[in-house]
């Protein structure tokens, strides 16, 4: 099984586990665009800003799935096939917002997702 190597300018800010079952499912909208409080290092002022995911890294732990990221609804025969142990990295907020997945067999998939922003 390959080892993940994440090296880039983005910062991980959120994580979720997604159960991929018989109905196609997308990523959590609240995690794709999350409000967070930050302290201004110069003036010491706190402010709330919205973090928008621009990349996510996903690994599949159980049961084969199919996925799309262009608005197409995946089915058991439509979409990119993902096998247990494989990973994908998606770039672009719009691609992440349109991501959908569905299981291909009788067992639900367990997809682990880490979200990244600038």
What keywords describe this structure?
single chain; 48% strand; mainly beta; Jelly Rolls; 8% helix; 118 residues; four-stranded antiparallel beta sheet
* Tally of helical segments: 2
Shape designation: elongated
Q: What is the CATH superfamily?
A: Clp1, DNA binding domain
User: How much strand?
Assistant: over 45%
**Which residues sit in consecutive blocks of at least 5 with pLDDT less than 50?**
none
Strand order of the largest sheet: 1-10-5-8
CATH class: Mainly Beta
Mean pLDDT, nearest integer? Answer: 89
Helices and strands, in order, run as EEHEEEEEEHEE
CATH architecture descriptor name: Sandwich
Terminal Cα separation, in Å? Answer: 29 Å
Helix proportion of residues, in percent? under 10%
The name CATH uses for the topology is: Jelly Rolls
Number of domains: 1
Largest sheet: 4 strands, antiparallel
Can you give a write-up of this model?
- The chain has 118 residues and is mainly β.
- The protein has a single domain (12-117), classed as Sandwich (Jelly Rolls).
- The chain is built from 2 helices and 10 strands, in the order E-E-H-E-E-E-E-E-E-H-E-E.
- The chain has helices at 29-32, 93-98; strands spanning 11-20, 25-26, 33-39, 46-52, 55-60, 65-68, 80-82, 87-91, 100-103, 109-117.
- The strands form 3 sheets. It has a 4-stranded antiparallel sheet with strand order 1-10-5-8. The protein has a 4-stranded antiparallel sheet with strand order 2-9-6-7, with no helix packed on it.
- A hairpin with a 6-residue loop joins strand 3 (33-39) and strand 4.
- The mean pLDDT is 89.
């Amino acid at each position: 099984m390959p080892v993940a190597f994440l090296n880039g300018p983005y910062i991980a800010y959120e994580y979720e586990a997604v159960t991929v079952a018989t109905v196609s499912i997308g990523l959590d909208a609240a995690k794709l665009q999350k409000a967070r409080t930050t302290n201004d290092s110069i003036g010491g002022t706190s402010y709330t800003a919205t973090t928008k995911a621009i990349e996510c890294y996903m690994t599949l732990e159980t049961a084969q799935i199919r996925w799309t990221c262009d608005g197409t609804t995946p089915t058991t025969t439509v979409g990119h096939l993902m096998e247990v142990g494989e990973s994908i990295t998606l770039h672009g907020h719009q691609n992440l917002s349109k991501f959908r997945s569905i299981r291909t067999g009788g067992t639900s998939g367990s997809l682990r997702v880490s979200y990244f922003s600038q």
